[in-house]
Each structure stands twice: as structure tokens, then as C-alpha cells.
Amino acid sequence: MYPIMVNLTNRPVTIVGGGKVAFRKYKKLINDNPKLTVISPEIDSRFDLDKINWVESRYKKSLIRDADLILACTDDAEVNQAVYQDATANQLVNNTSNKKNSDFYNVSTVEQDGFVYSISSNGKDPFATKQKRRALEEWLRNN
Ligand SMILES: C[C@@]1(CC(=O)O)c2cc3[nH]c(cc4nc(cc5[nH]c(cc(n2)[C@H]1CCC(=O)O)[C@@](C)(CC(=O)O)[C@@H]5CCC(=O)O)C(CC(=O)O)=C4CCC(=O)O)c(CCC(=O)O)c3CC(=O)O
Ligand SMILES: NC(=O)C1=CN([C@@H]2O[C@H](COP(=O)(O)OP(=O)(O)OC[C@H]3O[C@@H](n4cnc5c(N)ncnc54)[C@H](O)[C@@H]3O)[C@@H](O)[C@H]2O)C=CC1
């Protein structure tokens, strides 16, 4: 895996699913002002519907056609897998329920004084990543 910072401003990004995990990804993505679409029959009430295009529907292949980056976050592993398989070679997919079938992983970040500190376990252990993030925050508070 190759770590980079990506400028998503005005780029089409699609989240499939509108639940708890989708909302966690949305909270960070929205800071970069992408053209964000959420495809899901139901949506967590914490989403700001003025900031996204909510397509109130179950997943269909035709709905991801225009996205550069796709996050498959439904609670149906088969749907998430279909998203990964339906995407074309120039679309990058994060399958949140199957790390083996993901083109990229989300990282944990700490931002301070204009720096972004990113932490990843290469997909192996998100809980350990969260602990490292907390330890880093503690270290930054004391140094
Ligand atoms: C592979 C990856 C794919 C991806 O999502 O990109 C992935 C996968 C999985 N996460 C799971 C669970 C949880 N993940 C979190 C939180 C985070 N997960 C994130 C990233 C990643 N998670 C990628 C690899 C990261 C790496 O390389 O280390 C972070 C960094 C970024 C972000 O989410 O934006 C953010 C931490 C932010 C922070 O706090 O610093 C919490 C919340 C919490 O603990 O508070 C829960 C509890 C459940 C819940 O929230 O419902 C499970 C289910 C495991 C199980 O049930 O056994 C899987 C599936 C699996 O492991 O196969
Ligand atoms: N990568 C990560 O950080 C984590 C990933 N997971 C995975 O994420 C999945 C989702 O978890 P939660 O968000 O907690 O579930 P949730 O139940 O809160 O949300 C599921 C969402 O998927 C939508 N959905 C269901 N079927 C759909 C379909 N056919 N088309 C479009 N949308 C559909 C629902 O309407 C709902 O909005 C889990 O099943 C697990 O596999 C779980 C925890 C953390």
C-alpha cells in the first residue's frame, strides 16, 4: 500500500450505505468538499443533507458510474462485494467489510499545527490503529 494525501475537492465520491460506518467516513471526507453522493434506502440522521446528494435507493451498478472514489459501507457483505466487482479499473473502491477486496484503506489521522499525522496498520488491525492514534495525541499534548 502506498500512502498519499489526495485532493478530493469537487471530485465525485460515492458512499454506498448510510449507517454508522458510512457516517464515520463521511465526517472526514466532507472536510475536503468532494461532490459526495450517498446511496442507501435509509440514512443516519446525523448526515447533513445539504452537503450530499442522497440517492434514496438500494445499490444498483448504474448509480456508481460517475464516481472516482467509492466506499462500500452497507451492512450486506454481498452488496459491498458487488460494488467492488462492478467498479471499473479506474475507480478506487474501499470495501469496509472485506479488507482483502479493497483498493485503499482509510487511515486514522491527528491534525495539529498544520501537520497531518496518519496512522495505518495496513488494514490489519483498526483497533490497534485507534490505540496508536490515542497514544500519539497524548504524546503531542506533552511535547
Ligand atoms: C481495513 C479498514 C477498512 C476501512 O474502513 O478503510 C477497517 C476495517 C474494519 N474496522 C472495523 C471496526 C472498527 N473500526 C473503527 C474505526 C476506524 N477504522 C478505520 C479504518 C479501517 N477499518 C481500515 C484499516 C485501518 C488500518 O489500516 O489500521 C479508521 C482508522 C478510519 C475510519 O474509519 O475513517 C477508524 C479509526 C479512527 C480512530 O479512532 O483513530 C471502529 C470505531 C472505534 O473503534 O471507535 C470500529 C468498531 C466498530 C464500529 O464502529 O461499528 C472492522 C470490524 C472489526 C470486527 O468487528 O471484528 C473492520 C473490518 C475488518 O477488520 O475486516
Ligand atoms: N471499516 C470499518 O471501519 C468498519 C466496517 N464495518 C462493516 O460495515 C458494515 C456496516 O456497518 P454499520 O454502518 O454499523 O451498519 P448500519 O446498519 O448502521 O448501516 C447499514 C446501512 O446500509 C444500508 N444498506 C443496506 N442494504 C443496502 C443496499 N442494498 N444498498 C444500499 N444501502 C444499503 C442501510 O440502509 C444502512 O444505511 C458492517 O456490516 C461491517 O461489515 C463495521 C465496523 C467498522
Short description:
With about 140 residues, this protein is of the alpha/beta class. It is built from three helices and seven strands.
Structural class: alpha/beta
As for the CATH topology of the largest domain, it is Rossmann fold
Strand line-up across the major sheet:
3-2-1-4-5
Q: What is the CATH C level class of the largest domain, in words? A: Alpha Beta
Shape: globular
What is the quaternary state of this protein?
single chain
**What portion of the residues fall into strands of 2 or more residues?**
15-25%
Percent helix range? 25-40%
Helix-strand sequence = EHEEEHEEEH
The total domain count is 2
CATH superfamily membership of the largest domain:
NAD(P)-binding Rossmann-like Domain
Q: Which cofactor or ligand species appear?
A: ligand SHN, 1,4-dihydronicotinamide adenine dinucleotide
CATH architecture of the largest domain: 3-Layer(aba) Sandwich
N→C terminal distance: 30 Å
Question: Tally the helices: what do you get?
Answer: 3
Count of DSSP E strands?
A: 7
Q: What average pLDDT do the residues reach?
A: 97
Largest sheet: 5 strands, parallel
Radius of gyration: 16 Å
Task: List the defining traits of the structure above.
143 residues; alpha/beta; Rossmann fold; five-stranded parallel beta sheet; two-stranded antiparallel sheet; 3 helices; 7 strands; globular; binds ligand SHN; binds 1,4-dihydronicotinamide adenine dinucleotide; EC 1.3.1.76; NAD; precorrin-2 dehydrogenase activity; porphyrin biosynthesis
